[in-house]
């Protein structure tokens, strides 16, 4: 159980760091990478945040297919 808790904590940290980087840093690409890593590892909020970024075109090129991909992944993880 401790390993699962540690892994969840690490994913949450990766997610929050990624969000902060995307929102505040000039080099936001690292934040996108962190969010993608967290989302692929099962962090639903990270996948949903990526869906919103791609839908809005904030810090990434607007891409509705990518937005749909990340949204679908978020729903699968819910």
UniProtKB/TrEMBL annotation:
Domain of life: Bacteria
SUPFAM superfamilies xrefs: HCP-like
The protein's name: Sel1 repeat family protein
